Structure formats: structure tokens, C-alpha cells
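Researcher: Re-running this chain for the archive, since the previous output was lost when a drive failed. Same request as before.
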Amino acid sequence: MKDFYQHGYEISAVIGVDGSPNCAVNVTCSGDWGGELSGSMDYNDRIQAVKESNKSGVMMEELKAMLEEAGVQIPYCAVDENDMSSFEDISDILFY
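Model: Regenerated C-alpha cells:
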């Protein structure tokens, strides 16, 4: 992205999915599990322990830090799968 940005390309936004432990922009989930969640013997207990928190997912945090360090300033948008208006907001940004 840095290369595109430096060569004059317009990057409209980075789009993430809120609720994701990796790709969330505003709201992520976390819990006390490691590795593949569905392969656990105590799957239901682990699902019950998942908590939402108002922060970005792991990958999104790293991406934001890398782009900020490179001087790339672009908006971040989140898809909320439970709120269809989030899709309209993103459409407004991408197709202004």
C-alpha cells in the first residue's frame, strides 16, 4: 500500500470486519484459547468465555501501525454483519 500511496494512487479505505479477532476495526473479540477454537474438547466453555472489547483486531492493529510509520493516512471502515447500514456507509466512502 505504501508504494501505491507514494505513486499517487488513491486508497479509499481499509475495510475490516468488526467482531473478528484479526480484522476488526472498532470491536474485536478475545478469549482464553490458543490455536483452532473448534478443535477443542471444551468448545462450549471456550465460546462462553469470549468477550467483546472496543479495540482493533491483531492484524488491523499491526497494519495501522505499519501504515502510520510509513506516513500513509487513509480511513478505516468496519463491516458490521449485524447492521446492514455499515455497508451503506462503506459504499458512500468508496463510491462518493
